[in-house]
Specification:
The protein has helices spanning 5-8, 13-23, 27-32, 34-43, 45-48, 68-89; strands at 51-57, 60-65, 96-101. With 126 residues, the chain is an alpha+beta fold. It has one domain (28-126): DnaA, N-terminal domain (GMP Synthetase, Chain A, domain 3, 2-Layer Sandwich), CATH 3.30.300. 19% of the residues are buried.
Length: 126
């Protein structure tokens, strides 16, 4: 006795995964994720000393900034930063950058501190 047709053909995870990710709308999120790692190159060394990209939330890159003065400067530079991000990560993957006041010390510079982003009074949206 043979099995029904739907049980006979096995597919590799690699052949099914792209379709599953697209169906869950995770394909663009995963494609945008390198923006977090590329932030120091995108922002430049001086800005990277005061900032740390922590996550991609939808199509928004969330960046922790160590002072309100730097947040003001980065808001002014946001159009240029978005253009650089599009050039490095891909057009349309990151549509906004949200600057959040917090500990911007890089995990490579020592202790990372509190990784929690947001909170009642800690988030400054631009």
């Amino acid at each position: 006795m043979s099995r029904p047709a739907k049980y006979r053909k096995f597919r590799s995870v690699g052949s099914v995964l792209p379709r599953v990710l697209k169906g869950l709308k995770l394909d663009k999120v995963l494609a945008a994720q390198p923006a977090v790692d590329l932030w120091p190159q995108i922002a430049g060394p001086k800005t990277a000393e005061h900032t740390r990209a922590v996550e991609v939330d939808g199509n928004t890159l969330v960046v922790v900034v160590d002072s309100p003065a730097w947040i003001a400067q980065l808001r002014y530079l946001k159009p240029q930063l978005l253009k650089k991000i599009s050039g490095r990560v891909g057009k349309g993957l990151i549509g906004d950058v949200r600057f959040v006041l917090g500990n911007a010390e890089s995990k490579w510079q020592g202790e990372r501190g509190n990784d929690e982003v947001g909170g009642a009074n800690s988030e400054l949206r631009s």
